[in-house]
Amino acid sequence: MTLNIQPKLIIHGGAGSSLQGKGGLIKVRESLHRIVSEVYTLLLAGETAKTSVVHGCKLLEDDPRFNAGTGSVLQSDGQVRMSAALMDGDIQRFSGVINVSRVKNPIELAQFLQVSADRVLSDFGSLELARQLQIPSYDPLTDLRLKEWIQERQDNFQKTMAGVVSESDETKTDPESSTGDNAGYGTIGVVALDSYGRLAAGTSTGGKGFEKVGRVSDSAMPAGNYATDRAAVSCTGIGEDIIEECLAAKIVIRVTDGMSLPEAIQRSFIEAEKNQRDLGAIALDNQGSIAWGKTSQVLLAAYHNGDKIGDTLEWHDSSGLIGYC
Fold this sequence. Notes:
This protein has helices spanning 24-44, 49-61, 106-112, 123-132, 143-154, 239-245, 247-256, 261-274; strands spanning 8-16, 82-88, 93-100, 120-121, 184-185, 188-193, 199-205, 225-227, 231-237, 279-285, 290-294, 298-304, 309-311, 322-324. By secondary structure, the chain is of the alpha+beta class. Strands 1, 2, 3, 4, 5, 6, 7, 12 and 13 form a nine-stranded mixed sheet that branches. A hairpin with a 4-residue loop joins strand 10 and strand 11. Helix 1 (24-44) packs antiparallel against helix 2. The protein is globular and about 55 Å long.
Protein backbone atom coordinates (compact mmCIF):
# COMPACT_ATOMS: atom_id res chain seq x y z
CA MET A 1 0.00 0.00 0.00
CA THR A 2 1.46 3.36 -1.07
CA LEU A 3 1.81 6.24 1.33
CA ASN A 4 0.38 9.15 -0.64
CA ILE A 5 -2.20 10.80 1.63
CA GLN A 6 -1.47 13.77 3.89
CA PRO A 7 -2.35 12.56 7.41
CA LYS A 8 -4.86 14.54 9.45
CA LEU A 9 -5.64 14.44 13.15
CA ILE A 10 -8.06 15.91 15.67
CA ILE A 11 -8.37 15.19 19.41
CA HIS A 12 -10.61 16.37 22.25
CA GLY A 13 -10.47 16.51 26.02
CA GLY A 14 -14.13 17.21 26.72
CA ALA A 15 -16.68 20.00 26.47
CA GLY A 16 -18.42 22.34 28.87
CA SER A 17 -18.96 25.89 29.99
CA SER A 18 -15.57 27.05 31.24
CA LEU A 19 -11.80 26.57 31.13
CA GLN A 20 -11.51 27.59 34.77
CA GLY A 21 -10.00 24.76 36.80
CA LYS A 22 -8.32 23.29 33.72
CA GLY A 23 -5.27 25.35 34.46
CA GLY A 24 -6.79 27.93 32.17
CA LEU A 25 -6.43 28.35 28.45
CA ILE A 26 -2.64 28.16 28.34
CA LYS A 27 -2.30 24.89 30.24
CA VAL A 28 -5.05 23.15 28.33
CA ARG A 29 -3.54 24.29 25.05
CA GLU A 30 -0.12 23.02 26.10
CA SER A 31 -1.53 19.59 26.96
CA LEU A 32 -3.58 19.20 23.79
CA HIS A 33 -0.90 20.57 21.44
CA ARG A 34 1.77 18.32 22.95
CA ILE A 35 -0.37 15.25 22.34
CA VAL A 36 -1.32 16.33 18.80
CA SER A 37 2.37 16.83 17.99
CA GLU A 38 3.38 13.40 19.29
CA VAL A 39 0.58 11.51 17.56
CA TYR A 40 1.01 13.38 14.29
CA THR A 41 4.68 12.42 14.25
CA LEU A 42 3.57 8.78 14.30
CA LEU A 43 1.21 9.36 11.39
CA LEU A 44 3.95 11.04 9.35
CA ALA A 45 6.20 8.04 9.99
CA GLY A 46 3.58 5.79 8.37
CA GLU A 47 1.82 4.47 11.46
CA THR A 48 -1.76 3.32 10.96
CA ALA A 49 -4.73 5.42 11.99
CA LYS A 50 -5.87 2.78 14.49
CA THR A 51 -2.50 2.49 16.24
CA SER A 52 -2.11 6.28 16.30
CA VAL A 53 -5.58 6.72 17.79
CA VAL A 54 -4.79 4.24 20.56
CA HIS A 55 -1.54 6.04 21.34
CA GLY A 56 -3.28 9.40 21.47
CA CYS A 57 -6.02 8.06 23.73
CA LYS A 58 -3.40 6.62 26.09
CA LEU A 59 -1.65 10.00 26.32
CA LEU A 60 -4.96 11.67 27.16
CA GLU A 61 -5.88 8.93 29.63
CA ASP A 62 -2.52 9.39 31.37
CA ASP A 63 -3.01 13.15 31.81
CA PRO A 64 -4.92 13.79 35.09
CA ARG A 65 -6.21 17.02 33.60
CA PHE A 66 -8.76 14.95 31.69
CA ASN A 67 -11.55 12.68 32.90
CA ALA A 68 -10.36 9.38 31.46
CA GLY A 69 -7.87 6.90 32.86
CA THR A 70 -5.85 8.63 35.57
CA GLY A 71 -8.02 11.40 37.01
CA SER A 72 -11.35 9.76 36.23
CA VAL A 73 -14.27 10.86 38.39
CA LEU A 74 -15.92 8.63 40.99
CA GLN A 75 -19.37 7.11 40.75
CA SER A 76 -21.89 7.47 43.57
CA ASP A 77 -20.42 4.56 45.53
CA GLY A 78 -16.93 6.08 45.48
CA GLN A 79 -15.51 3.77 42.81
CA VAL A 80 -13.85 4.64 39.50
CA ARG A 81 -15.38 2.86 36.50
CA MET A 82 -14.24 3.72 33.01
CA SER A 83 -15.43 3.02 29.47
CA ALA A 84 -13.64 3.18 26.13
CA ALA A 85 -14.19 2.27 22.49
CA LEU A 86 -12.13 1.93 19.33
CA MET A 87 -13.39 1.72 15.76
CA ASP A 88 -11.29 0.86 12.74
CA GLY A 89 -13.01 2.55 9.82
CA ASP A 90 -11.03 0.60 7.23
CA ILE A 91 -12.74 -2.67 8.18
CA GLN A 92 -15.66 -1.04 10.05
CA ARG A 93 -14.89 -2.89 13.29
CA PHE A 94 -16.02 -1.64 16.70
CA SER A 95 -14.72 -2.79 20.09
CA GLY A 96 -15.05 -1.48 23.62
CA VAL A 97 -15.18 -1.95 27.37
CA ILE A 98 -17.83 -0.67 29.77
CA ASN A 99 -17.36 0.24 33.45
CA VAL A 100 -13.91 -1.31 33.80
CA SER A 101 -11.87 -0.72 36.97
CA ARG A 102 -8.25 -1.03 38.07
CA VAL A 103 -6.59 -0.51 34.70
CA LYS A 104 -4.44 2.38 33.55
CA ASN A 105 -5.58 2.53 29.93
CA PRO A 106 -9.06 1.22 29.07
CA ILE A 107 -8.37 1.93 25.39
CA GLU A 108 -5.79 -0.90 25.44
CA LEU A 109 -8.53 -3.39 26.28
CA ALA A 110 -10.64 -2.01 23.43
CA GLN A 111 -7.63 -2.42 21.13
CA PHE A 112 -7.19 -6.08 22.08
CA LEU A 113 -10.89 -6.74 21.51
CA GLN A 114 -10.49 -5.68 17.87
CA VAL A 115 -9.30 -9.23 17.20
CA SER A 116 -11.79 -10.96 19.51
CA ALA A 117 -15.01 -12.69 18.55
CA ASP A 118 -16.66 -10.86 21.49
CA ARG A 119 -15.84 -7.22 20.96
CA VAL A 120 -17.69 -5.33 23.73
CA LEU A 121 -17.28 -6.40 27.35
CA SER A 122 -18.82 -4.97 30.51
CA ASP A 123 -17.33 -4.72 34.00
CA PHE A 124 -16.72 -8.35 34.99
CA GLY A 125 -15.75 -9.42 31.50
CA SER A 126 -13.39 -6.47 31.15
CA LEU A 127 -11.74 -7.27 34.47
CA GLU A 128 -11.27 -10.91 33.49
CA LEU A 129 -9.78 -9.83 30.15
CA ALA A 130 -7.28 -7.59 31.96
CA ARG A 131 -6.29 -10.56 34.11
CA GLN A 132 -5.87 -12.82 31.09
CA LEU A 133 -3.66 -10.21 29.41
CA GLN A 134 -1.69 -9.86 32.68
CA ILE A 135 -2.25 -6.12 32.69
CA PRO A 136 -1.00 -4.79 36.05
CA SER A 137 -3.64 -3.55 38.48
CA TYR A 138 -3.69 0.25 38.60
CA ASP A 139 -5.55 2.80 40.69
CA PRO A 140 -6.51 5.82 38.53
CA LEU A 141 -7.83 7.81 41.50
CA THR A 142 -6.32 11.24 42.18
CA ASP A 143 -6.54 13.32 45.35
CA LEU A 144 -8.71 15.89 43.58
CA ARG A 145 -11.32 13.33 42.56
CA LEU A 146 -11.43 11.82 46.04
CA LYS A 147 -11.83 15.22 47.69
CA GLU A 148 -14.50 16.12 45.16
CA TRP A 149 -16.47 12.95 45.97
CA ILE A 150 -16.11 13.42 49.75
CA GLN A 151 -17.39 16.98 49.45
CA GLU A 152 -20.35 15.89 47.38
CA ARG A 153 -21.16 13.04 49.77
CA GLN A 154 -21.38 15.62 52.55
CA ASP A 155 -23.85 17.52 50.39
CA ASN A 156 -25.91 14.32 49.87
CA PHE A 157 -25.04 14.11 46.17
CA GLN A 158 -27.12 17.08 45.10
CA LYS A 159 -25.10 17.59 41.92
CA THR A 160 -26.09 15.66 38.83
CA MET A 161 -22.45 15.20 37.83
CA ALA A 162 -18.92 16.04 38.89
CA GLY A 163 -16.92 19.07 37.81
CA VAL A 164 -15.13 16.74 35.49
CA VAL A 165 -13.16 18.95 33.14
CA SER A 166 -10.33 19.93 35.30
CA GLU A 167 -7.35 19.45 37.46
CA SER A 168 -5.46 22.70 37.87
CA ASP A 169 -2.91 23.95 40.33
CA GLU A 170 -5.75 25.58 42.26
CA THR A 171 -8.15 22.62 42.35
CA LYS A 172 -5.45 20.20 43.46
CA THR A 173 -5.63 21.78 46.89
CA ASP A 174 -9.17 23.09 46.94
CA PRO A 175 -11.93 20.88 45.51
CA GLU A 176 -14.46 23.65 46.00
CA SER A 177 -12.64 25.77 43.42
CA SER A 178 -13.70 23.45 40.61
CA THR A 179 -16.30 24.82 38.26
CA GLY A 180 -19.29 22.82 39.45
CA ASP A 181 -22.11 20.92 37.84
CA ASN A 182 -21.75 22.29 34.34
CA ALA A 183 -18.01 22.85 34.20
CA GLY A 184 -17.59 20.23 31.55
CA TYR A 185 -17.78 16.68 30.42
CA GLY A 186 -14.28 15.29 30.26
CA THR A 187 -14.54 12.42 27.81
CA ILE A 188 -11.43 12.23 25.61
CA GLY A 189 -11.28 11.26 21.97
CA VAL A 190 -8.93 10.93 18.98
CA VAL A 191 -9.79 10.73 15.27
CA ALA A 192 -7.09 10.12 12.65
CA LEU A 193 -6.61 9.78 8.89
CA ASP A 194 -3.37 7.99 8.07
CA SER A 195 -1.04 8.08 5.06
CA TYR A 196 -2.89 5.15 3.51
CA GLY A 197 -6.23 6.98 3.61
CA ARG A 198 -7.61 4.90 6.49
CA LEU A 199 -9.72 6.34 9.30
CA ALA A 200 -10.09 5.38 12.96
CA ALA A 201 -11.74 6.84 16.06
CA GLY A 202 -11.23 6.22 19.77
CA THR A 203 -13.09 7.55 22.81
CA SER A 204 -12.52 7.06 26.55
CA THR A 205 -14.22 8.39 29.69
CA GLY A 206 -14.49 8.18 33.44
CA GLY A 207 -18.21 8.97 33.21
CA LYS A 208 -20.30 11.83 34.58
CA GLY A 209 -19.29 11.44 38.19
CA PHE A 210 -21.71 10.61 41.05
CA GLU A 211 -23.83 8.53 38.66
CA LYS A 212 -25.73 5.42 39.70
CA VAL A 213 -23.69 2.22 39.73
CA GLY A 214 -24.16 0.46 36.41
CA ARG A 215 -24.85 3.57 34.36
CA VAL A 216 -23.49 3.19 30.81
CA SER A 217 -22.07 6.12 28.86
CA ASP A 218 -22.14 6.74 25.13
CA SER A 219 -18.38 6.32 24.80
CA ALA A 220 -18.46 2.55 24.42
CA MET A 221 -21.20 2.48 21.80
CA PRO A 222 -21.54 3.70 18.19
CA ALA A 223 -23.61 6.67 19.38
CA GLY A 224 -20.43 8.23 20.76
CA ASN A 225 -17.67 6.66 18.65
CA TYR A 226 -18.06 5.58 15.04
CA ALA A 227 -15.96 5.22 11.88
CA THR A 228 -16.18 3.82 8.37
CA ASP A 229 -13.99 4.25 5.30
CA ARG A 230 -15.85 7.52 4.63
CA ALA A 231 -15.78 9.38 7.96
CA ALA A 232 -14.93 9.02 11.65
CA VAL A 233 -16.38 10.77 14.72
CA SER A 234 -15.74 10.96 18.48
CA CYS A 235 -18.26 12.66 20.77
CA THR A 236 -18.22 14.35 24.14
CA GLY A 237 -20.85 15.89 26.39
CA ILE A 238 -23.81 14.45 28.27
CA GLY A 239 -23.83 10.77 27.37
CA GLU A 240 -27.59 10.42 27.50
CA ASP A 241 -27.97 13.32 25.05
CA ILE A 242 -25.42 11.78 22.68
CA ILE A 243 -27.16 8.40 22.83
CA GLU A 244 -30.56 9.93 22.13
CA GLU A 245 -29.16 11.73 19.07
CA CYS A 246 -27.05 8.67 18.07
CA LEU A 247 -24.69 11.46 17.13
CA ALA A 248 -21.49 9.81 15.88
CA ALA A 249 -23.24 7.22 13.73
CA LYS A 250 -25.69 9.82 12.42
CA ILE A 251 -22.92 12.10 11.18
CA VAL A 252 -20.99 9.26 9.52
CA ILE A 253 -24.10 7.87 7.82
CA ARG A 254 -24.96 11.29 6.43
CA VAL A 255 -21.48 11.56 4.92
CA THR A 256 -21.90 8.08 3.46
CA ASP A 257 -25.21 9.15 1.94
CA GLY A 258 -23.54 12.03 0.09
CA MET A 259 -23.38 15.02 2.42
CA SER A 260 -20.09 16.80 2.91
CA LEU A 261 -18.67 16.46 6.41
CA PRO A 262 -19.44 20.09 7.36
CA GLU A 263 -22.99 19.69 6.04
CA ALA A 264 -23.48 16.47 8.01
CA ILE A 265 -22.26 18.05 11.23
CA GLN A 266 -24.28 21.22 10.63
CA ARG A 267 -27.51 19.26 10.11
CA SER A 268 -26.84 17.03 13.12
CA PHE A 269 -26.04 19.90 15.47
CA ILE A 270 -29.04 21.95 14.38
CA GLU A 271 -31.16 18.96 15.36
CA ALA A 272 -29.28 18.53 18.64
CA GLU A 273 -29.71 22.19 19.55
CA LYS A 274 -33.42 22.03 18.73
CA ASN A 275 -33.67 19.04 21.08
CA GLN A 276 -31.79 21.00 23.79
CA ARG A 277 -28.85 18.60 23.90
CA ASP A 278 -25.52 19.36 25.55
CA LEU A 279 -22.73 17.79 23.51
CA GLY A 280 -19.83 18.15 21.11
CA ALA A 281 -18.06 16.13 18.41
CA ILE A 282 -14.86 16.00 16.38
CA ALA A 283 -14.67 14.43 12.92
CA LEU A 284 -12.59 13.63 9.82
CA ASP A 285 -13.53 12.35 6.39
CA ASN A 286 -11.47 10.34 3.91
CA GLN A 287 -10.66 13.48 1.91
CA GLY A 288 -8.90 15.01 4.92
CA SER A 289 -11.61 17.48 5.90
CA ILE A 290 -11.53 18.29 9.61
CA ALA A 291 -14.71 19.43 11.35
CA TRP A 292 -16.16 19.86 14.81
CA GLY A 293 -19.39 20.95 16.46
CA LYS A 294 -20.83 21.82 19.86
CA THR A 295 -23.94 22.97 21.62
CA SER A 296 -21.93 23.57 24.82
CA GLN A 297 -19.99 26.79 25.33
CA VAL A 298 -16.52 25.27 25.14
CA LEU A 299 -15.07 22.40 23.12
CA LEU A 300 -11.59 21.33 24.24
CA ALA A 301 -10.17 20.16 20.91
CA ALA A 302 -6.96 20.51 18.93
CA TYR A 303 -5.97 19.34 15.46
CA HIS A 304 -3.21 19.08 12.87
CA ASN A 305 -4.36 20.01 9.37
CA GLY A 306 -1.17 18.92 7.63
CA ASP A 307 0.43 22.34 7.89
CA LYS A 308 0.10 23.35 11.51
CA ILE A 309 -1.57 22.71 14.86
CA GLY A 310 -4.73 24.60 15.74
CA ASP A 311 -7.42 24.34 18.40
CA THR A 312 -10.99 25.27 19.31
CA LEU A 313 -10.30 26.65 22.79
CA GLU A 314 -11.25 30.22 21.91
CA TRP A 315 -14.12 29.24 19.64
CA HIS A 316 -17.23 30.60 21.36
CA ASP A 317 -20.97 30.46 20.80
CA SER A 318 -20.90 33.45 18.47
CA SER A 319 -18.90 31.32 16.03
CA GLY A 320 -21.90 29.09 15.35
CA LEU A 321 -22.60 25.42 15.91
CA ILE A 322 -19.77 24.01 13.77
CA GLY A 323 -16.24 24.75 12.68
CA TYR A 324 -14.01 23.15 10.04
CA CYS A 325 -10.74 23.45 8.18
